[in-house]
Design a protein that fits this description.
There is one protein chain. The chain is of the alpha+beta class. It is 30% helix and 10% strand. The strands form 3 sheets. It has a 5-stranded mixed beta sheet with strand order 5-3-4-6-7. A two-stranded antiparallel ribbon has the order 1-2.
Length: 290
């Protein structure tokens, strides 16, 4: 019996893993995980991109439906009554989000009574890192030449080559204003509600009241972005609200080197910002270019 037990124990030891074999197996598993994780990350990003593009397409379609119901006028994100476009207060009943609710059925930001909306739907990019900021209104910014100033569809020459909206920059509160705590819900006239925090569009024009300036907002001609034309005296930083355009992001958006852009014809394309603006005469932001 003793001899037989010794033999069994010897066979058991022979069948076991050595430390080296165990380390090799662990190493192989680690390599496989290392190979698999980037693929899973890319798949997640790709799926998010499809959903993001779908949301942009629905918003662009809703804008066109609104325009068709309102004598071809686009909905507005800014008020130019003072002579220069200024951000709408969130509480305006004819504000941009509320104007499109009929066609989308959902909105961002806050309810009329100040409560935060629970159904954010198409207004949010699925991987938007700022989606949970207090009373965040959405993930997209419009071309100010379409919804920031009075504009009709008939004034847009090439709907398939004119950008309507894109993704706003991440780090929105740092780029605009940190929401006060607590929020001034009892005072709808508080400056916060009309601050850049609620600026739903980029302003591709020069900061001037001189209507003879070639890049005055009424002319519909996008000024050169300083990030691409640093030595141009007419250049401005109007592209900073777009994801990936702030210097600290080094030209890389949350989706990589490119960015999602929605057009007036409700098409959506993935482009590098440089492709959207080549010169004041050749870009996808001005009205009537190309």
């Amino acid at each position: 019996m003793i001899k037989q037990n010794s033999t069994n124990q010897r066979h058991f030891r022979q069948r076991g893993f050595t430390l080296v074999e165990l380390l090799v197996v662990i190493g192989i598993i680690a390599v496989l995980i290392g190979m698999l994780l980037p693929a899973l990350s890319r798949a997640r990003q790709s799926a998010a991109g499809v959903k993001c593009a779908s949301g942009m397409r629905q918003i662009a379609t809703a804008v066109m439906m609104y325009a068709n119901d309102h004598e071809l006028w686009f909905p507005r994100t800014m008020d130019s009554g003072s002579g220069f476009p200024e951000t709408y207060s969130w509480w305006r009943l004819d504000g941009y989000h509320r104007a499109l609710e009929k066609y989308i059925g959902r909105s961002g930001g806050v309810e009329v009574d100040g409560g935060e909306r629970s159904n954010r739907g198409v207004w949010f990019d699925p991987i938007d890192p700022d989606a949970d900021l207090p009373n965040m209104w959405g993930s997209f910014v419009d071309n100010g030449f379409l919804t920031g100033v009075p504009r009709k569809i008939s004034q847009v020459r090439r709907s398939s080559d004119t950008i309507m909206l894109t993704l706003r920059t991440r780090g929105w509160a740092e780029a605009t204003i940190m929401p006060p705590d607590p929020l001034p819900l009892a005072d709808q006239n508080d400056s916060f509600w009309s601050s850049e925090y609620f600026d739903v569009c980029v302003d591709p024009w020069a900061d001037t009241t001189d209507e003879f300036d070639p890049f005055h907002w009424k002319r519909g001609r996008a000024a050169p972005p300083k990030s691409l034309f640093p030595n141009d005296p007419n250049a401005t930083e109007w592209d900073q609200p777009i994801d990936g355009r702030r210097p600290e992001h080094q030209g890389k958006s949350r989706y990589g080197r490119g960015q999602w852009y929605g057009f007036v014809d409700a098409s959506v394309r993935f482009l590098d910002f440089k492709e959207t603006y080549q010169s004041p005469e050749n870009n996808m932001w001005s009205i009537g270019n190309r």
